[in-house]
Amino acid sequence: MEIIAYSFDKRGNSTARPSGTGSGESLDGVLKDNCSILNPSLMLLAWHFEYNYVYIPDFSRYYYVTDVTLISNSRVIVSLRCDVLASYKPAILTTQAYVLRASKASNVQIPDVFYPTLSGTWQSISSATFIDITTPSFIIGVIGGTGVGSITGAVNYFVVSETDLATITSNVFDQTHYGTDISDNVVKTFFNPMQYMTTCMYCPFLASSGGSEGITMGWWDTGVDGTKIGPRITLDDISLNIPRTNENDDNYINYEPWTHYRLYIPYIGFIDIASNQLRGNASIIIKSQIDTSTGELMCWINGNNGRRIATARGQCCANIPIAQTQATIGLTGESALSLAGFGAKAVGDLLGGSLGGSVSDIGTALLANTSQLSINGKMGNISERFFETNVMLILDASHQTVKDNDLFGSPLCETRELSDLQGGYVRCLDAKIKNTVVLEDERTEIESLLNGGIFLE
To answer: Quick check: is 259 in a domain?
Structure first.
C-alpha cells in the first residue's frame, strides 16, 4: 500500500493540509490485519523518524502519526489516527453553520465577554464654555405704567447694573423724593414704590449696557434707565463632541457596562446620560433658556441627529430679598393706614395742617416701635457656578485585556457558509456537517471540533 509521509507542523484543530511539490515522500507499507480505517497500523521497511503525518490515497484520508514501533533494524510499525478536519476539508467549507465567533468577520455591536475587564477606569472629557461670566448685573421685575413697550399694570423686566440698582433702592427709601414726585391725590399719598418691584435677582452672566429705557414703578419714575428683556432669555447653542472608547460608534465597548457618561452643566450639576442614548451621534447639542421671572435655567440636550436625549432644570440666578419698612398708624380705633418706605416727617408733610402735626408725632413713635422687615422672595442657590464654569461631557470607561482576534476571533452570531470565513478561526453552535461518505464517529468528531472552534487553514 502506498502512503505519502510528511514532516508537517499543524494545529490539532486546523483543516490545513500539506502542500507544495516534493513536500512528501512516497513509501510502501503493509496494512496490518483487522485494523480500523480511522486508526490503522502499517509495517514499513523504510522510515524516517522526522515524519509525523501521512496521507493514504486508497483511504482518501490524512493521518497523524501517533506511535512508531521498532520490530527490527529494517522494519517499523507506524500507528496512525485520522485527521478528520484535513480529510473532510471540502465538506467542512461548504457547510452552512451558525457561527458564534470568527476572526474574518464580526459584529462589533455584540458584547465580547470572552475577555475580562481590567480594574479601574480612565476618563475623557469634552468641554466648552457654557455662559461667559461677566460683571454681575441684576434682573428686576417691576410694574409700571409708562415706558416704550410697557403694558400698564403688567410686569416688565429690566437688566440693571449694581450701581443702578443701588440708585433705585436709595431713591425708594429717600423720603425727599416723595414731596415732589407724588401729588396730593389721596391714592398716591399712600403709594409704596417697593410693592411694584416683583422680583430682584442677581445674575452673574448678563452684562448691563447702561440701558435705554426709563424704569417706572407704579406712577413713580425711578430716574434710572435699564435694558428691557422679554420673559425668556435664549442662550447660544453649545455643541460637545462625544468622547469614545472606540472610534466606531457601534462598538459595544462604547456602551454600558464598559462606559458611563455624565453631563455637567453649571447651575444644574451632574446628569447621568445613558450611553445607548448617544448611539448614532458624533456630538450633543445643548439648547438653553432662562425664565426671566424666576431665574430658572432650562436645558434641552439633543444628539446631532436631532434625537432628544435629556432635559434638565436648575437655578442660575439668585433671588435677592426685597425689603420694605412698614408701619401701622392708628388714626382711629377702628381704621388704620399702612405706609411703607416713608419717614415720619414725610407723612406729616404730605398730610399737612393740624392733622399733619399730630400724625407726625404719632408716626415717629410708631415707626420706632412697630416697624418690621417684610421679605418678598428667597435666596437662590447658584453655587454650581462657582464649582465649574464649563459644560462638560465626561466619559468614565473600563478597559478589557488585550485581545487576540486571530487566535480567538470575535462575536459574529450569523449563519454563514464556512468558506466565507476561510483563512481564520471559527466557532459554531450546533454545527451539522452533510456528507454521505463520512463515518458516524468522524461526523461526531468534526461537529464537536466545529463547536469548540477550528482554524480554516
So the answer is: yes
pTM of the model: 0.70
pLDDT at 228 (0 to 100): 87
Residue 197 domain flag: no
314 within domain boundaries: yes
List, in sequence order, every residue forming a beta bridge with 240; answer none if it has no partner: 284
Question: 444: which residues sit within 8 A by CB, 6+ positions away?
Answer: none
10 Å Cβ neighbour count for 89? Answer: 19
The 10s digit of each residue's pLDDT in 71-91 is 887 789 999 999 999 999 999
| Residue 278, CB-side half-sphere exposure with 13 Å CA sphere | 29
Average of per-residue pLDDT values in the chain? 80
- Is there a single domain that holds both residue 423 and residue 308? no
Tell me the C-alpha distance between 449 and 457, whole Å. Answer: 14
Cell 470565513: give the residue: 421
Would you place residue 194 in the very low, low, confident or very high pLDDT band (cuts 50, 70, 90)? low
Number of structural domains in the chain: 4
Q: Cα(432)–Cα(113) distance, rounded to whole angstroms? A: 26
